[in-house]
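A.,

Following up on our hallway conversation. Structure tokens first:
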């Protein structure tokens, strides 16, 4: 009798653990979780940034200090994202500010600043040298002021 009860308990536990896998999209519940955050591959995220372009059109990633005047990466990312969501005037203002910082820096080869958004593939980041897809949106572009 004890052996039968032990088998019954073991089978019940195994069922309880595997049951979420057989459920249709049901609400997640602890401890019998279906782990919905791992159940599908989410859409590739957008990365918003400002790049500099030289006279040949080749783009160069800019440092946070050129984007915001600060060395904080998250502050630069947030500044660009807020400007993009705020609309065209904020995007143009950010672009002009970055272009002025580029002009004051030692990067005399850069002729243009561009506020862009690109799709980023996190998996390709670890396997490929080019994790950014061809899906891209240019929000603003402005020329770097020359020496006066």
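Then the amino acids I'd put at each of the 148 positions:
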């Amino acid at each position: 009798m004890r052996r039968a009860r032990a088998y019954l308990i073991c089978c019940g536990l195994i069922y309880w653990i595997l049951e979420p896998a057989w459920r249709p999209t049901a609400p997640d519940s602890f401890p019998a979780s279906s782990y919905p955050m791992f159940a599908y591959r989410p859409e590739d995220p957008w990365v918003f940034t400002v790049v500099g372009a030289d006279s040949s059109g080749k783009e160069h990633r800019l440092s946070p200090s050129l984007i915001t005047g600060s060395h904080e990466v998250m502050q630069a990312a947030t500044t660009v994202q807020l400007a993009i969501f705020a609309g065209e005037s904020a995007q143009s203002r950010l672009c002009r500010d970055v272009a002025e910082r580029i002009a004051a820096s030692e990067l005399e080869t850069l002729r243009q600043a561009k506020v862009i958004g690109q799709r980023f593939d996190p998996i390709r980041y670890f396997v490929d040298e080019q994790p950014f897809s061809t899906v891209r949106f240019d929000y603003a572009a402005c020329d770097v002021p020359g020496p006066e």
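The mean pLDDT is 85. Curious whether your intuition agrees with the design.

B.
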